[in-house]
Amino acid sequence: MVTFTSHEKQVLDSCLLILEQVDSPFASIVKSRMQDVEQLASIVDRAPSPSTDLLQQSGMRTTETLAKKLVEHGLGHVVDLPTKAVLGHGLTVSKLHLFGLLMKLLSAIEELVSVRSNVEQKYNNLLFTLMAEDLYTAIISTQENDSPWMQEAVHELITMWDLRTSGYLETFALAIRELWQARHTIVPTLGTLMGTIEIMTLSALLPPVWLDFLLSAAAVEEVGSSLEEFLFDVKYEELVELRSIMAQQNITVVSRETAWQMLGKEEIPASENNIALALYKSFMSRQQQAKIRAYRQDPGPKRSLEEYFVIYLLMSEHHQSSIKIF
What we know:
The protein is mainly alpha-helical. The chain folds into two domains: 6-51 and 60-167, no CATH class; 171-316, no CATH class. The chain is built from 14 helices and two strands. The chain has a two-stranded antiparallel sheet. α2 runs antiparallel to α4 (83-106) and α3 packs across α6. The two termini are 37 Å apart.
């Protein structure tokens, strides 16, 4: 396993060189962290592949048998996970923290300005890798064994466990980032669910893959609700309360800012400087709420918008004429 991609290594070496040139005490810290990550990577590399049969007994463990087990039983406790999956996840987090350290140094050491964009890009890419793994895990954990996209999700997760990458990662990361950026440019208005989707599909800021996804999912109420959560940064339960208030006051549409005021919430927090980090925090919050609804069987979206989108990508890969998210 390659500890750092060629571009990651180039960025790290450039940062280290600059820190050494300015005689920064952080140079030795960064160098030490890099060595720690390399040592962890060597341990991950020695861990057996998830599809390896350690007992070397024919038919005991293959990628197909592991996929079958995951489809039939889902993901249980951490003790059920392959060693390489757990160690590999830790490696990605360790790399994220290394680039996170450099992100903090960017504002403290002006000489690092020349590498700012590259450091931010690498940090963001690692965040999206973690998000993708979380999404595949969530999809498989739903135990919808007969879903046509389940097998594809399982194979993608096994690939991430083994190689720390996914065939859909680049498309997913770019599309999600573009939607998050559009979220701050488009002025959403809460009225009817279909109205929200129509506003998004009419926007020239969205890439074609998002337009296709929204059009295919327009009739699915839970997908529309997850889109509203994404756009307004408000939970589904709060959206229900907001619509009740709007009906009582005979209001047909409201903006994001007005929605927060009507709900008596604090002012909308200032945008996170790092787009990917803000998105990841929002995703984790919405994903947790969706899990709670699914467990309790409460009304509202049982998945985050990102999860619905990944399922759409998994289905689209097979070029099906009629894509169903449920």
